[in-house]
Design a protein that fits this description.
The complex is a heterodimer of chains A (about 500) and B (about 325). Chain A has about 500 residues and is α/β, with parallel strands linked by helices. Chain A is about 30% helix and about 25% strand. Chain A has 17 helices and 22 strands. Classes of the chains: A alpha/beta (about 500), B mainly alpha (about 325). Chain B: Its main location: membrane.
């Protein structure tokens, strides 16, 4: 095989950290190379240098044996390198076709004089490309109307339209549901089989096992090594990546189910457009119990959580917290009566990104003594000491301590901050929505341990997750939701992963 | 009826071209509250050019008038470059920059007009007198019942603006450059990733908005008072902003909003005449477009969609 890309002794420093420390790596033509590492290990930095968004401080990058100075994404483009970013770079009010051809629009002329964008032929070309690589999209759809998985396909088509040979995927599955992940992995395999070279930045070991040929592991900015995926176990990989042994399965502590904390009766929720997302859902949750709501994304799980937290109005039914109906209470009343909420969208619901940690960690308590005094003036000192204590207890890594802006923190640390704040409320009920989405193995392990600990302390935990593995590992009882309706509620021990999956798809038939 | 149409068109069309200017600037992602100041400064530049050139170009009043339109566009673009510089290069708050430019424009034009009139023409005044803008009546078309009014006593700037508006619509919706302008207003990072120069695209868009606002302002100066005077600052720039907001930042819908505003105004004037109200009620009529705006706000404000990246600083 030919070496297509070669990194030679690459070093990249940012103020305060060495993101990449003397990294050498060669990538073969036609392989799927996974780059594995925890958040902040330097994976994205390394690839952003290949794509011309960063320039190495030391070392060389060779493409097809030739030393190249990749000073901008345009240069990368000319070298047939394409990248699908974690945050999509799409213009939402334009069509799929317009997005794909942007910057290299084919032109025609009215009356041989006035140039215009030849949308018609572009549409055809997009249609052909999407057929050729089995990336079904409708070239005329507007981006804002299509789901995340289709947007990702548009990003892939954008690279293919520009004849990219080296395709970089930055954590492509972080935003997808299990089904969509399967289909994406299939697409990536297809691309490899048609001769493309794939670089996959990820921290999900099972995906690497499934499709990657080789795996380069980074740990704290250094290259640990490149391993053949077929002959390395996931245990070994995760140990190398974290730099220590990780227990991938939790040794669940014994616990007793206590008194009832939450009882939901006949809950129905509608969106602003009067679409019924939750339909007559009932369940109860006790102290020391983890109840997990399983379901394919968009089947009403998040709406249940929002309704309990008070973010969505209850259309029908009632929500009892410790026997008291809270369905008419304000959000603040619910928080004060003991509901902690770790929302799905940590950036827009969980945190105020432009506030420092000091204030973010106090968002639900700032108006209370001792954070505000009796005259209603905020007590910065008190907030600071709370923040300091939480930062050290929960190991929230932040560049400038309590003054760190939430925006500048990594996803994992943002999540840690939210969890720290919510646990600190000492609420009896904790609602976790997708708590480990987009996090690395180390962070996931921490959060899972925390959930287990909270259960042992006798808290009631409602866990909403799209990751079936996570549910199977943590839940005591599982409620499966399909189209807003309860398919089943059972003890976790009474169901296999396969059965839960069938209920999630709405196809399980009860055996007589 | 005829006068409602004639007056309505004379008001709507300059308003429309100012609103298109706003669509260019805001479509590219730069908030432009400065339209009011830009149209005034454009009219000032046009009026000044008229006053200065009238001794040079003698015997050809038409050339003088059309040249003043061109100078108004240059003047508008000039002041717009200040807004562009503030918002794009120095990343200032776009709302504040716009408001400050409006106030600056009022003060600056009053000062300059006084100084220039005193020193060049020897007569202290804050006005530049203009000629009446040429009007045409199209021979056959004007005979059509009702609609014929559209072709009667028509200011010749109307067809000029219509042609420019069509060109601006073609550029915005059909050319790659226009596509990039609209993309910059939605997700500038996507444009940059595709190799576009976001700052340049936005800069040009803001300049265009200045030029178009200047043109519209000059037409108002001709049609409303046949002078440039500080009375040009009557809030028409804000009305243009309301028009493109109701038009959801789209040129075709904005046209309808402008027509509505223009006709509300002219119908009001006719009403005052017909009811033989004292002329002071004419001032009441001036409030009509704004009242229409308030009423429309009730119905449309939730349905319009601003460019997603409007007001976002791009770095």
């Amino acid at each position: 095989m030919d070496t297509l890309v070669e990194f030679r002794h690459i070093t990249k420093r940012f103020p305060g950290i060495v993101a990449n420390n003397d990294i050498s790596l060669s990538i073969q033509k036609g392989e799927i190379l996974a780059i594995l590492g925890e958040n902040g290990a330097g994976k994205s930095t390394l690839m952003s240098m290949l794509f011309g968004m960063q320039i190495p401080d030391e070392g060389d990058i060779l493409i097809r044996g030739k030393k190249e100075h990749i000073s901008s994404p345009l240069v990368a483009n000319d070298l047939n390198i394409g990248m699908v970013h974690q945050h999509f770079m799409l213009v939402e009010n334009q069509s799929i076709t317009e997005n794909i051809i942007m910057g290299i629009e084919p032109k025609k002329r009215y009356f041989g004089l006035f140039p215009y964008v030849d949308i018609q032929s572009s549409k055809e070309k997009v249609r052909e490309l999407s057929k050729q690589y089995q990336l079904e999209v409708d070239p005329e759809s507007i981006i804002e109307d299509i789901p995340v998985s289709t947007r990702q396909r548009v990003e892939i088509l954008k690279m293919l339209y520009r004849n990219a040979e080296i395709l970089i995927f930055d954590e492509p599955t972080a935003v997808l549901t299990p089904q969509e992940i399967e289909s994406l992995l299939g697409i990536i395999k297809n691309l490899r089989d048609s001769g493309k070279t794939i670089i996959l930045i990820t921290h999900k070991l099972d995906e690497i096992k499934k499709i990657a040929d080789r795996c380069a592991i980074l740990c704290k900015g250094k290259m640990v090594g490149v391993f053949d995926v077929a002959s390395t176990t996931t245990q070994e990989m995760s140990a190398l990546m974290v730099g220590r042994e990780v227990s991938l399965t939790l040794s669940s502590t014994e616990h007793k189910r206590g008194t009832e904390v939450l009882r939901v009766e006949g809950l129905s929720v509608e969106t602003n457009e009067h679409i019924r997302k939750v339909d007559k859902v009932s369940f109860t949750l006790h102290r020391g119990e983890v109840l997990s709501i399983a379901g394919v994304a968009g089947n009403g799980q998040v709406e249940i959580a929002d309704a309990i937290a008070g973010l969505l109005p209850v259309k029908e039914g009632a929500i009892f917290l410790a026997g008291k109906d809270i369905s008419g209470c304000t959000v603040r009343e619910r928080i004060e009566s003991g509901v902690a909420y770790i929302p799905e969208d940590r950036q827009s619901v969980g945190l105020i990104l432009d506030f420092p940690l000091r204030e973010n960690l106090c968002l639900k308590q700032y108006y209370q003594d001792p954070y505000s005094n009796s005259r209603g003036v905020l007590q910065k000192q008190e907030m600071e000491s709370l923040a300091k204590q939480l930062i050290s207890t929960y190991d929230i890594r932040s560049g400038s301590g309590v003054n760190t802006l939430a925006r500048s923190m990594s996803g994992g640390n943002q999540q840690k901050a939210i969890i720290a704040r919510e646990i600190n409320l000492q609420a009896d009920l904790l609602i976790f929505v997708q708590p480990t989405r987009g996090l690395d193995v180390g962070a996931i392990e921490t959060i899972h341990k925390k959930i287990d600990e909270l259960r042992a302390q006798g808290k009631a935990i409602l866990l909403i997750s799209l990751e079936l593995d996570e549910i199977m590992e943590l839940a005591d009882s599982i409620l499966v939701l399909y189209n807003g309706k309860v398919q089943t509620i059972k003890q976790a021990s009474e169901m296999t992963k396969l059965e839960v999956g069938e209920y999630m798809m709405g196809v399980h038939v009860e055996k007589a | 009826m005829d006068s409602i149409i004639i007056e309505g068109i004379a008001f709507s069309i300059p308003l429309f071209i100012i609103a298109i200017g706003g669509i260019y600037s805001e479509g590219s992602g730069v908030i432009n509250l400065a339209l009011e100041g830009l149209l005034g400064f454009g009219a000032f530049a046009g009026g000044l050019s008229y006053a200065l050139l009238s001794s040079v170009i003698t015997g050809n009043p038409l050339l003088l008038i059309y040249a003043s339109l061109a100078f108004a566009m240059v003047g508008g673009a000039l002041l717009a470059s200040l807004h562009a510089l503030m918002c794009i290069k120095f990343k200032a708050n776009q709302v504040i920059s716009g408001v400050v430019i409006n106030m600056l424009s009022v003060a600056l034009t009053a000062f300059l007009a006084n100084q220039i009139n005193a020193s060049v023409f020897g007569q202290p005044s804050n006005k530049f007198l203009l000629e009446i803008f040429p009007k045409v009546t199209v021979p056959l078309l004007s005979k059509i019942p009702i609609l014929g009014a559209l072709f009667t006593d028509l200011y010749t700037f109307v067809p000029i603006i219509v042609v420019i508006a069509l060109i601006m619509a073609y550029i915005l919706y059909k050319t790659p450059f226009g596509m990039h302008i609209r993309a910059c207003g939605d997700n500038p990072h996507a444009v940059a990733a595709a190799g576009g120069n976001v700052m340049k695209i936005r800069f040009i868009s803001v300049l265009v908005s200045g030029a178009l606002a200047g043109l519209g302002g000059m037409c108002f100066a001709y049609s409303i008072s046949t002078t440039f005077s500080p009375n040009i600052y009557m809030g028409f720039g804000y009305l243009a902003i309301a028009a493109y907001i109701f038009g959801s930042w789209k040129i075709s819908r904005t046209f309808l909003a402008c027509i509505l505003f223009g006709f509300a105004r002219s119908a009001g004037y006719v009403l005052v005449q017909k009811l033989e109200l004292p002329s002071s009620y004419g001032d009441l009529v001036l409030t009509l477009p704004y009242i229409v705006t308030l009423v429309l706000l009730l119905f449309f404000s939730s349905k319009t969609k601003a460019p997603r990246a409007l007001g976002d600083v791009y770095e």
